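Summary for the lay section of the report: proteins are chains of building blocks that fold into shapes. Here we show the chain for Outer membrane protein beta-barrel domain-containing protein and then a coded description of the shape we predicted for it.
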Amino acid sequence: MKKIALLLLLAASSLTLAQTHFGVKAGYSLSSMKWKSSIGDLKFDSKSYFYVGGFAEHKFNEKFAVQGEVLYTELGGQMEEELTQFVGNQLITVGMAEYKFKYPQIQVPVSAKYYFVNNFNVLGGFNFAFNINPVVKSNFLMNGSDEGKLENAKTLNISPFLGAEYLFDNHFSVDARYNFGLFNANNSGFDNRTGFLQIGLGYRFR
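The coded shape description reads as follows.
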């Protein structure tokens, strides 16, 4: 009887330690896009944006946890190039063309977390990002419009990431992570790789 009671106590303790927390989060995103081709590389100016969404963390014990998130954000970059034309025998600059590449995304990061202490952990995992109508916008007309759809963009992009999180109390937290652009985000054409930094705040409901 004592052994059964001890086993029940241990089982109850395990259930107490294994907790699931739900919450919301939002923050700042900075993405850096680079194109690679046989004729050279092209690096774009970084793009700043926000991210917002929710998360669920399941803590197995005092040290280990897993976390899933659903976020909305937008990655991309921009560049400028000279517009030139011949006037007589001279090639002159008549203006600057600006291109803004926009990749709205629903992101689903899945991470494993290790708690060094109760309020600090490091994390790593994979970000599964689904593009929503990516476009390029310009300050001059392209085929009669100032906006064009990026037909070559993959629907799903996967980025490994590493980061850290600090919990102020049972509710508020701050985290930072970097998502590595290791895989080509285009189906054809230029090899498009985008890395991005995310820094934000979280709020746990329980």
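Put simply, here is one thing we learned. Helices lie at 2-17.
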